[in-house]
Amino acid sequence: MRDSYDVVIIGGAVIGSAVAYFLTANADFDGSVLIIERDPTFAQASTSLSSSSIRNQFSNPINVQIGQFGTQFIRDFADVMEVDGEKPDLGFHEGGYLFLASGDEQAQILRENHEVQKSLGADVVLWGPDQIKAAFPHLSVDDLQLASYGQSGEGWFSNTGLMNGFRKKARAQGADYLVDEVVEIARVEDRVTGVVLASGQVISCGALVNASGPRAAKTAAMAGLNVPVEPRKRSLFVFDCAKTPEGTATVNNGHLPLMIDPSGSFCRPEGKFFLAGTVPEADPAVDWDDFEVRHEEFERLWMDLAERSEAFEAIKLVNFWAGHYAFNTLDHNVIAGPHDEVANFIFANGFSGHGLQQSPAVGRGVAEWITYGAFRSLDLTPIGYDRVVRNEPFLEKAVI
Question: What does the DSSP 8-state code read for residue 63?
């Protein structure tokens, strides 16, 4: 293992590996890349514990475009990530997202979001209660005013498949991976100069990328920097239905979408089962190693879903787990790009539950910044670190 790299990336899950892929795939970048990962099993990585979905239905144009690029990248993933004749299959199910609105305020937000989405070419429609019922007969619509449905470009896919595809291709293109833990970051005035590892090895670098997920603030603090990211816990539940509504839709060949109820609870098909979660009533920061499932959330989730559909009255829990959001306490959106004073410390943090779906566009953007000193494909400046310094949130109304 070398003792000096042009770029060192802390965190080897989907974000770090996406940055490594786009760097090594760019003919204009001729530097060396090292990814340092503390846990090669990724057992507790946000990537591995994600609900693994992607959408274009956001309120801010940048987030819509990030989603659109991610969708196309996932569609092309097998060909782009081919290594030695092997093409990774992400099993992308374009089931769509269905946002349901029950009051005037929720309906108005959907209308405003829809204008932004349509202006960028997103395949999204607005439906009233009769249209919702016609498309998804199992749903109760008496309390609904409006729905926003993504007819294509949205769905779910293999989370570990995306991560492993990035990792394998980045390695094939020359990136090095090292299993170790960064315990110290060396800094001289306004530049990071290297890292010290738990093994005792010291590695110098030209640029450092913080891709350490919920541990982002811990990583930044080693360089004397701050980032408003903390671990928040999300519990996910897989259940079986006595009488499944999957296959009953009159759109998309009978397939159901990922449905977001006005209560905040959501569910989507997961093979022959359903995957579901809800918004915690209390949402404090948690310890790094706290992965205990909040089982009380399942009862509330069940009540929400049973009120929405009789099909969800008789269900059986078959699996559950908890993962961590890398939660941006400023505005629940990613921070991408350089620190305002330490310019070779690059953030890719605070995705707040959107990291998997946003990894292609943000990985590309961070790689462009390192290579050219600017974002080229999509201007990510509004989601840069400067807004943290100014304490000006990046507004996004479609956060779930």
Answer: H
* Average predicted confidence (pLDDT) for the chain: 97
Tell me: pLDDT of 270 over 90: yes
364 plus 345 within the same structural domain: yes
- Say whether both 102 and 216 belong to one domain: no
- Whether residue 1 is predicted with pLDDT greater than 80 in this model: the reply is no
Residues 6+ positions from 248 with CB-CB distance below 8 Å: 136, 137, 138, 254, 256
List C-alpha distances in Å: 25 to 140, 167, 170, 368. Answer: 49, 12, 8, 11
Q: Cα dist. 162→17, 77, 169, 356 in Å?
A: 10, 8, 11, 8
Position 94 scores a pLDDT of: 97
Which domain does 200 fall in, by range?
4-55+159-230+330-390
| Distance from C-alpha of 99 to C-alpha of 106, rounded to nearest angstrom | 10
Say whether both 183 and 202 belong to one domain: yes
Structural domain includes residue 397 = no
C-alpha span between 134 and 132 (Å, rounded): 5
| Number of independent structural domains in the chain | 2
How far are the Cα atoms of 6, 16, 46, 208, 381 from residue 221, in angstroms, in the given order?
22, 19, 21, 13, 23
Give the pLDDT score at 397.
81
Say which residue the tokens 């009789």 belong to. Answer: 310
Asked if residue 384 and residue 334 are part of one domain, the reply reads yes
Residues 247 and 264 both lie in one domain: yes
Do 316 and 244 lie in one domain? The reply is yes
Q: Establish if 210 belongs to a structural domain.
A: yes
Q: Tell whether the model's pLDDT for residue 256 goes beyond 80.
A: yes
Q: Mark whether 320 and 346 lie in a shared domain.
A: no
Look at residue 126 and tell me if it is in a domain.
yes
The tokens of 333 are what?
Answer: 């959106």
User: b vs e for 139-174, b when ≥16 Cβ sit within 10 Å of the residue's Cβ?
Assistant: bebeebbbbbbbeebbbbbbbbbbbbbbbbbbbebe
Give the pLDDT confidence of 324-368 residue by residue, as tens digits.
Answer: 999 999 999 999 999 999 999 999 999 999 999 999 999 999 999
pLDDT digits (tens, 9 = 90+) for 273-320: 999 999 999 999 999 999 999 999 999 999 999 999 999 999 999 999
Q: Once rounded to an integer, what is the mean pLDDT over residues 2-19?
A: 97
Q: Verify that 235 and 320 share a domain, yes or no.
A: yes
- Residue 399 pLDDT exceeds 90: no
Q: Say if CB 102 and CB 263 are below 8 A apart.
A: no
Domain finish residue from 276, 295, 324: 324
